[in-house]
Amino acid sequence: MYDNQNRALIAISGHQDICLIPGMANRHGLITGATGTGKTVTLQTLAETFSSMGVPVFAADIKGDLSGVAGRGGNKESVQKRVREYGLPDKGFSFQAFPVQFWDMFGEQGAPVRATIAGMGSLLLGRLLALNETQSGVLTLVFKIAEDERLELIDLKDMRSCLEYAAANSAKYGIKYGNISTASIGAIQRNLLTLEQEGGDNFFGEPSLKIEDLLRSEEGKGVINILAADRIMNSPKLYTSFLLWLLSRLYDTLPEVGDREKPVLVFFFDEAHLLFKDAPKVLLEKVEQVVRLIRSKGVGIFFISQVPSDIPDTVLGQLGNRVQHALRAYTPKNQKALKAAAQSFRANPGFDTEKAVSGLVTGECLVSFLNADGAPAPVERAFILPPEGQIGPLDQKTRLHMLQNSLLFRYYAESRDRVTAHEKLTPKLEAEHKAREQAAQSKSVSAAEKAAAKIQREQEKAAEAQKKQAERQSRKTSTFLGSIFRSIITPIIRKFILDLFRRR
């Protein structure tokens, strides 16, 4: 709840109100806790609070529960009981629906969300494709070739065509850009096929998401943009790459505004541990840079995960507003995480923070928000206020009706395919392929002629050898017959001559 007095009521500790100062929301925040301890409700309460300030929100709906914010609350007796118990109507609490825009990468549960290959960039695309260092380097070279040749990379077929073109002309480009390994090109192409099967062909294309479409308000309330993320969680790298791309686009697009009375946009990054899992150093540095600098654009980021240790220290140190739900210490690793979570708060002499973390009930949490001078307040044990919107998913009929009446859904519904890299390169690739075929055929004919000539020479050589062999055999036969003749005739002649002399 936001009372327009530079304070936003978030939780109640006994009879003490715990408020978030809107001007400190762009110092970012962290919501942690074990599964089933109330993180989603906390997210919804914060999203509604920012919406009431007139601040747009972007959040991923992992389980489908967040969609209920579009409906009027009070649908649970436990919620009504807590509202009465804390006297919330006197503080301005009222069950109500909030303006919502649904988004979906698959275009089924919301307006399609798309990005271009060029907009994603080689760094994020390399992570999305799970490339190694060598393959990422080749991908970067291909992006550079596309830029220099003025080839627009919009969708996956553009990327594939550009890879094929670079491979076919590796000798030409290798001198200028460096070695373009055919093996790396092949690996990238295979990973692109996998990405396409996981839904990447739906995500990459046009019209690309316009940042201004996330910054809308309706009747003084900021629109809560909800990304349907239940299906995309089957491809966590696509999910995290998209959200990081969106943060980067926000940073590149929004003007510098410095410290404001309230944020321009608040961004909730659920299942944040997936962003940092197995992330290369260069990507972690980019995340740290975006988180550090985007506050000057008036954007607040809230990471949501199970334990603070899911977030790298370089990023964790920039998250000033903390909400910690219960943690359970069943193993030594759990105990270590619990202790680290307790130590991340500014101590409160009124209770033992470490013991409190493991004893929190559902909906209860440890809270520490930044005060007016930017320092964290001492941790308080409190109950998060229940949402004013509906708890649980919106029914499909109502959701479908909202989609059908959404102007943004109509704008983004149909993809557009114009002349880009694929269309420009296809004639060149076909011509090169035809030239290679002709060269191969010519080479094949030449090789056949050479083979025929060789066979003819061998045949002539064999015939000559046979002729010589026959001549040698003939000479041998003549010599043999002559020898026999001489051996028979010579004694006869000799006897005739001797007889002749005797007669005389």
Identify the CATH homologous superfamily of the largest domain. P-loop containing nucleotide triphosphate hydrolases
CATH architecture of the largest domain: 3-Layer(aba) Sandwich
Low-confidence stretches: none
Overall mean pLDDT:
88
What is the helix fraction of residues, given as a range? 40-55%
Approximately how much beta-strand content do the residues carry? 5-15%
Q: Give the total of beta strands.
A: 14
Strand arrangement within the widest β-sheet reads 2-1-14-13-12-3-11-10-4-9-5-6
Query: What is the CATH topology classification name of the largest domain?
Result: Rossmann fold
Number of helices: 16
Report the order of strands and helices: EEEHEHEEHHHHHEEEHEHHEHEHHEEHHH
The shape is elongated
Determine the N-to-C terminus distance.
164 Å
Structural class: alpha/beta
Main CATH class of the largest domain: Alpha Beta
Q: Mind telling me the C-alpha Rg?
A: 40 Å
State the domain count.
2
Main sheet record: 12 strands, mixed
